[in-house]
Amino acid sequence: MRFSIFSVFALAAGLAGCGEEPKPYHQQAYVFGTLVEISIDGEEEARARQAAGEVSAEFDRLHKKLHAWKPGPMKDLNDAFAQPGRRAPLDQEMSAILQDATRLSELSGGLFNPAIGRLIALWGFHSDEIRAALPDAAQVKALAAARPRMTDIALSGGQAESRNGAVHVDLGGYAKGYALDRAAALLKARGVRNALVNVGGNVLALGSHGKRPWRIGIQHPRKPGPLAVLDLRDGEAIGTSGDYQRYYEVGGQRYSHLIDPRSGYPAQGVQAATVLIAPGPGAGTLSDVASKPLFIAGPAGWRQAAESMGVTRALLIDAKGEIHVTPALRQRLEFLEPGLALHEIH
């Protein structure tokens, strides 16, 4: 697996010249099925290590709590949802998460739909080891026709139930962003002012890296290394969805984990979609969620999908590798490859 966004500290240090500033404290882990990186600048190493350790522990807690198919609270909920009318207890945090995911799903017109976990599993993506095998077309059609939606879930009195037995919540397109927001809250509570947190390509910045903003790169979807770089400002978050993260190929066709809930099939026609989110409550969560509707809407509908999510800084790379970008994001980007097919879309 490759990651859609990564920190390019080597580039930033090179631009500074002669290594005059100390490097930030850097910690890595593997959570949410992806690489997690925490960088803290301007703090003593012991203090930075403790803060990063608390964030890592929180990520591990969320990973266990929100995992869609391994034993845990989310699996317990999904087991209950499979039996309409059966109620299952949930805590305040889980209730808030489900409500927020439902709100964002409705905002996206259903293109972001965490309730389609059964479809994701049917395509083979509920596994640590992905096997290249197409599912039965009749099963795909039946699950898509059942139209599982987040609004099928009823929450009341600390319990949840589903009116649709096809609902299986998979927060894979939400949890990493939620984790970013939790990381930011924990770091701020610790008095950490300057940090960069990268959860598998969803990145949130606090403060700066020395005298400069944090500089990150947007992964090229078909080549090693970044397609473009930008300075990520205090409180901003950025996220990318790509068909190169979790996918397999059958008969020369690429099938990724990004499922179109309308058809039940992996979305086609797009290599990657990126969103840059302004500082504010839930910026990390939105950076994770908002790229999905853009990717699924495709070249014809991505701009409208961005508007529906309240996103003005967005980029989409189509199947030909041509780049479509909003003016607000274009002015922030430094593209590293000459001769790109670039379309600024108003």
Instruction: Give me the secondary-structure category.
Output: alpha+beta
- Assembly context of the chains: single chain
Helix content: 25-40%
- Outline the low-pLDDT stretches: 1-19
> Could you give the order of strands across the largest sheet?
2-3-7-8-11-14-15-16-18
Count of domain modules? 2
SSE arrangement:
Blueprint: E1 5-7, H1 9-16, E2 25-31, E3 34-40, H2 45-66, H3 73-81, E4 88-89, H4 92-107, H5 117-122, H6 137-146, E5 153-156, E6 159-162, H7 175-189, E7 195-199, E8 202-206, E9 214-219, E10 226-232, E11 237-242, E12 247-250, E13 253-256, E14 270-277, H8 283-289, H9 291-308, E15 314-318, E16 323-325, H10 327-330, E17 334-335, E18 342-344
Parallel strand pairs: 16-18
Antiparallel strand pairs: 1-9, 2-3, 3-7, 4-6, 5-6, 7-8, 8-11, 9-10, 10-17, 11-14, 12-13, 14-15, 15-16
Helix pairs in contact: 2-7, 7-8
Please outline what is shown here.
The chain is 33% helix and 25% strand. It has 346 residues and is α+β, with helices and mostly antiparallel strands. The protein folds into two domains: 231 residues, T-fold, CATH 3.10.520; 94 residues, Orthogonal Bundle (T-fold).
Question: What does this protein look like?
Answer:
There is one protein chain. With 346 residues, this protein is of the alpha+beta class. The chain has 2 domains: 5-65 and 175-344, T-fold (Roll), CATH 3.10.520.10; 69-162, ApbE-like superfamily (T-fold). Helices cover 33% and strands 25% of the residues. The protein has 10 helices and 18 strands. It has a 9-stranded mixed beta sheet. A hairpin with a 2-residue loop joins strand 7 (195-199) and strand 8. The longest helix is centred in the N-terminal third of the chain and has 22 residues, at 45-66. Mean pLDDT is 92; it is low at 1-19.
